[in-house]
Fold these 4 entries.
Entry 1:
Amino acid sequence: MTIIYSYKNGYFEKTHMKREVELVVISDVHLGTYGCRSEELLRYLSSINPKKLILNGDIIDIWQFRKSYFPESHLRVLKYILDLAYQGCEVTYITGNHDEMLRKFGKMQFGHITLTNRLLLDLDGKKSWIFHGDVFDASIQHTKWLAKLGGWGYDRLIQLNNVVNWVLTKFGREKYSLSKQIKNSVKKAIKFISDFEETASHLAIENKYDYVICGHIHQPQIRRIDTKKGSCIYMNSGDWIENLTSLEYNQGVWEMFSYDEKKDVLLDYPAEAMQFRSNLEELLENIIKGTL
């Protein structure tokens, strides 16, 4: 645990304890869209002290980026991630389809931040293959305009869902996910998810990877897949729109973190500790100059 102290009444007082985490993987945050749950993500990130943070695609939604909508809480997520890098956390940004404009830069590194299209890691002697996963999505590869239209429609659906859930909450009812209901009731959607997981896993097995970690389909998952050629562990970090999940690795073990299941035990981060070391421009300048 990392302990945060604040100075009160002439002495230092312990205010917060962060969980130490070796590696965290999050994906599909979609900053810049109405569905992004930035406040919940900030609360989660501020409760942990990760050595490595992997952002596995679609963190900033460049597809749907608009100047008229990028609230302060979304900017605070970016500031907080930069501040983690400033303090020594190794941050890897893997590009996805909604932030594919960043792919033209290839692999870049400045300070403790790395921009790349995929990541290979050796974790306690086991090989991990980490990438966003949109390469398996034919609708994106061949009809990008249709995929972008689908992304716009999904954002509108989330907006409608937020209104529905606000009404349900007022009447003391449980929240309801329209998109999950649609996915679960459409056989093609279920088959797509299954095919996605199988394809990623079979390729990982053929290439002798022990773990394959994706995002893209917004379906949190950890499961073992066996074939005649071998086996691997398929994992998906889910998203921060509906599922609010991440993958955590500690002492050789992978676990799925679910915000909805753990939010009651997450400590509220003290307001004074949420002050960033400097503004966004200064953070970027210091990181690029390598003054970490």
Entry 2:
Amino acid sequence: MKTLETRTDVSSPIAVETETRPGSERTLLSRLRAPRRPRIWFEVLLIAISYWTYSLIRNAVPEQKAAALANADWIWSVERTLGIAVEKSVNHTVDSVTWLIVGMNYYYATLHFVVTIGVLVWIYRFHPGRYAATRMVLFATTGVALVGYYCYPLAPPRLMNGQDFIDTVLVHHTWGSMASGNLKQMSNQYAAMPSMHIGWSLWCGLTIFAVASAPWARILGLLYPTATLVVIVATANHFWLDAVGGMLCLAFGYTVSRSWYGSFAHRLPRHPEHAGPHPATELLNRVRVRTRA
């Protein structure tokens, strides 16, 4: 019995050592996929450059006014056929309550960015192991939306001809949209499909619902995209079907992230295991060593 115990004690470190070796000799692809603790300077730089690139490409898409208006007429016709063309009723009803529509204008202009950045910071701070996968969902969603803007120019309801939609930003003199008033030259007015207000808000809501532990936070997470849907319709910035386009883009984003990391973000460990230096960091270090030599 003592001999067996001794053998067991001796063999354990060897087993651990054997299990460790394959981890250190993983393929480059598996090492790239391994979740790592994010670095704040890199994330701020990445997000800034990515959003700048997104805005540049989105606004560089030719404003095909005739095609955008024709597509808006077609969307409106399809919604009437389906019996869901209630955007005008919602727009006029909410516009009759000044404080409500003004609040929605500012909601449209600000929370789209504030909440999205807030969720990114929250995941970065408290769930670093899930951060990269969560961020990839957002990036892939936004990237595929650019394809939609280029392939399917669409005018928002407020720019349609002869449909009597109210541009609530112009009427109430608020700055609820960069595509209205004096700021309209800074943004592509005919990039309404898909709606990234829905794509981003639903990403925020699902992330909060999947990761948060407090019931009230999970409820608020689901209410946020719901409120956003009402806002984009009430302000005549989007059709219902634009929201469907945003949801499809988000589904694509989740598919890309899951394919890369092998799991949905909320199922990954909250804190990443030590995966060694990033391959890109190793490459830079080698270049530095060779340069010094």
Entry 3:
Amino acid sequence: MKLLKQIFDFYLNSSIHVALSCYALVRITFHVFHIQYDEPMALFVFFGTIVGYNFVKYDALVRVKRKPVGNQLKIIAILSLVSLVLVGYYFFHLKRITQIVSVIIFAITALYTLPFFPNRKNARNWAGVKIYIVALCWVGATLVLPYINAEIPFIPDFFIKCIQRFVLVFVLILVFEILDLANDDPHLKTVPQTIGVKRTKILGFSLLVPFWIVGILSFSFHELIINLIMVVMLMLFILFANPNRSKYYTSFWVESVPIFWWLMIVFL
């Protein structure tokens, strides 16, 4: 049992789970816009997520706080290095415009982690900005990149789906911020720190309205049912979120929402 827990913790700590969530959202983008499966695009996002998230999570520990590097962190570093090589490989299979946009997304991720400006903290520590940067990066990586790589003309539905994807990620991050309330630096001014847990939950419930409306605009009964299940699922995650919840509540269950969404599209 202890070994299984160690494997499961490694699966979460190495960002494989969140990478699978991003992969699921890419597959949803393929489905929504009737794009033929593009393996280099999907795997570029998958391995890019591993590299990006591990860089964000562990850079400060090693570079700034100089924490001792344990065995698990060494394995994660090796995994990240292999993923970086694969990201480079798949990068050259993408269209030129996709490459340019992906570099912009990477630059935003780097800005989020590293202090580029003298006497300024990184963007991760800018008051009230974190949630928007993360949501925009997710939309860019899981929707904008696959869309432009497929060379599809921009249509109104693309922008509508961008709003829906942004709302989804924003709501999921709200749950994370509620659970991290006790540990977050007060200067971050996260949403729960600014307006309180109760109002944050009300905000999350309110944002599910445009998410639902976008879902029913497809006029498909199949999509209608799936979006209804998604709304109920998100409402429950928001409702039961509190700072005393286990880390697995967000790091596994909440981050599984995009995977559940993809599986419902495939099997329902």
Entry 4:
Amino acid sequence: MPALAEVIAALEDAYPPALAESWDAVGLVCGDPAEPVTDVLICVDPVAATIDEAIETGVQLVVAHHPLLLRGVHGVPADTPKGALVHRLIRAGIALYCAHTNADSANPGVSDALAEAIGLRELRPLDPHPDGATGLGRIGELPEPEPFAEFVRRVAGALPRTEPGVLGAGDPDRLIRTVAVSGGAGDGFLGAATAAGVDAYVTADLRHHPAGEHLETGPDAPALVGLTHWASEWPWCGQASAVLRAAFAGNVNVHVSARRTDPWTIRA
């Protein structure tokens, strides 16, 4: 069975830490690199629900997309929410590794997983790095054009259900062929999506004023599809699981979290 350090090496080969944004906190949060790993749980959020699942499943490693300790801390006492999670992980002998914006920019990465889930092909970065292959967001094409209302239903059917659901903003009859996507909060790329000339832009956490002002720029502005943050990034869990299964076939059991950690739980 591989050591934790070997599993981390496979993850960092797929999602190089050098691709992370300067403000980000990626890598090993807790755990002994020398300890063996037989089971891994992959999730979007390292929260109580997924730590419960990790303990129940008997894994030695949780791979999460979102960092647990994004901002600097001076301690992790067990009477704080995040400190309590660190203590639970250590007591259970479970390591935590986070791949955040490095997984966003990798090729393939978070937005590739979202694009592929909704059926896009011929992918390229929306906000490319100098190499042209890595970068944030993706642009792709549907196999055939379809009305915007049908496209919104396509997106909803491809992603796990959430209480807020999937929202569309645009002419229901507009034909959609080229699409930009960005897993996670992506209204900072509204201008890039418009400049790319796509028909629609799919992302999470769209805010009222930026979205409204975007649509007011004219009839050629991409139609918008709004998702919850968790749903937009959950397809990456399957992608990351494939990385580990390919690297450690037969030696590591890889589990994708089945627990919805989207914070919205009631729809009135």
